[in-house]
Specification:
Helix 7 crosses helix 15 and helix 10 runs parallel beside helix 12. The protein folds into two domains: about 160 residues, Rossmann fold (3-Layer(aba) Sandwich), CATH 3.40.50; about 230 residues, NAD(P)-binding Rossmann-like Domain (Rossmann fold), CATH 3.40.50.720. It contains 15 helices and 13 strands. The chain is globular. The longest helix has 24 residues. Helix 7 links the parallel strand 7 and strand 8.
Length: about 450
């Protein structure tokens, strides 16, 4: 679905209006395609923390070209700064010393990553300084412009070797619409690394269950997980059976048609994946509905149906799969929340409650999961789908522009973030909620 405004600003009159009126000028975001390098350019690495020595080798092993400075006359595609060595406020000057001389030497759609230590793992002046990194990186993502993103990765002591999948995601075009995020590695659960034999197809031999898979974001999740090697089991309501069958036939996958709110739905899903596939490696709770009304006019059925589909069903299915031993070791549970669950929306008290509840599910389970199983969530912002195409024009335009990218995201942006969580190498990525929103300017 094309962005008509984005096309307009590339015309002669559009360029003139952007220049004279200061209108948003969204660039075409880089997005990854199979066979392309993870990073098409050089990543400059700096800092003097506990990852300084290992970072160049880790990036090099991913096929990324690494340098210690920007060569005169050239431009960098990424900057990575190890800030784990900053132990007090005075040490924050190292951020300015590293980034300031290089900010004008970046290509469009570059990647900026700061690596720190989880403040909860340190104390005193070091805790204060490490918490300050959040404000720096969120501001960095908003001011970089031209499709460039900024992220903060907190690495717990002992988890230094478990960074590869996260750096591969954040430095590549796969993270096109993810910016201003704080990601914690090894904060909950294991800090160990898991080797990924094939970075092109990290999910080879894995089985992935995706609810709401027949169209929209769910369809794209199924396609990306299949691209990464997974056998996909698509789940959707009987009314969507024909669309689901066409997709699963194309992907060589399996399908289950049922209402996930049904009393026996969780048991039927668990039985199916155990009997037919011996278990499941990735569970994506994507199915969701909206029934919008202001709370003063909210009918009981509107409230109940949204909570049932968006929150109660994922909780029941997750617990049944865990109780039945249907999720394999080093498995992944991934919820689809929403920016509405973080910032709220007028007329969406039911939807926002359900999506905040998905974050609650992550919080409730992250510390209790065993055998390398993780739980995380994505929180999409304005994603361009058939559903958002029906939003009134003025509302849609405002929704697309109020982020650092000045544009809406695509379903593939949500799918790529889920694929990062699903990667076997992401076993130390647990208990995270990452917004796929282009870094919203307001609300969250």
């Amino acid at each position: 679905m094309s962005d008509k405004y984005q096309g307009f600003v590339q015309t002669p009159i559009g360029k003139l209006l952007v220049k004279n009126l200061g209108l948003p000028n969204p660039v075409t975001l880089d997005r990854w395609t199979p066979g392309a390098p993870l990073v098409d350019g050089t990543v400059v690495v700096g800092g003097s923390g506990r990852l300084a020595e290992s970072l160049p080798g880790a990036l090099g092993a991913l096929g990324i070209t690494v340098a210690t400075d920007v060569v005169e006359g050239s431009k960098a595609k990424g900057l990575v700064f190890d800030a784990t060595g900053i132990t007090d406020a005075a040490g924050l000057n190292a951020l300015r010393d590293f980034f300031t001389p290089k900010m004008r030497s970046l290509q469009a759609c570059s990647r900026l990553v700061v690596i720190g230590t989880d403040p909860s793992k340190v104390s005193g002046s070091e805790r204060i300084a490490q918490r300050a990194l959040e404000g720096f990186t969120r501001s960095l993502g908003k001011e970089a412009g031209r499709g460039t993103t900024g992220q903060l990765v907190y690495v717990a002591p002992g988890a230094e070797g478990a960074l590869d999948s996260t750096l591969a995601f954040l430095l590549s075009p796969k993270s096109a619409y993810v910016s201003g995020q704080v990601i914690r590695i090894g904060a909950t659960g294991t800090t160990k690394a898991v080797k990924v034999p094939d970075w092109e197809r990290p999910l080879d031999g894995k089985v992935a269950l995706v609810t709401g898979a027949s169209r929209g974001i769910g369809e794209q999740i199924a396609r990306v997980l299949h691209r990464d090697g997974a056998l996909v089991i698509g789940v959707d309501v009987p009314q969507a059976a024909s669309d689901l069958k066409v997709l699963m036939d194309e992907l060589g996958g399996d399908m289950i048609t049922l209402d996930i709110t049904g009393k026996d739905a969780a048991k039927r899903i668990a039985h199916h994946v155990k009997e037919k596939h011996g278990g499941v490696d990735v569970v994506v709770h994507n199915a969701g509905i909206t029934r919008d009304k202001k709370l003063a006019n909210m009918a009981e059925d509107r409230w109940d149906s949204v909570i049932a589909v968006n929150l109660t069903a994922p909780e029941r299915i997750t617990r049944e799969l865990l109780d039945a031993g249907a999720i394999n070791d080093n498995g992944r549970i991934i919820g689809v929340s929403s920016i509405a669950g973080i910032a709220g929306n007028v007329g969406q008290t039911n939807y926002a409650a359900s999506k905040a509840g998905v974050i609650g599910l992550v919080d409730a389970l992250a510390g209790d999961l065993k055998k390398g199983i993780t739980i995380n969530a994505v929180a999409p912002g304005f994603i361009v789908t058939q559903m958002t195409a029906a939003v009134p024009f003025a509302t849609r335009e405002v929704g697309q522009r109020l982020n650092a990218m000045s544009q809406g995201g695509l379903p593939v942006d949500v799918a790529e973030t889920i694929a990062w969580y699903a990667n076997p190498g992401s076993t130390a990525v647990n208990g995270n909620v990452v917004r796929v929103c282009g870094q919203m300017m307001l609300g969250a």
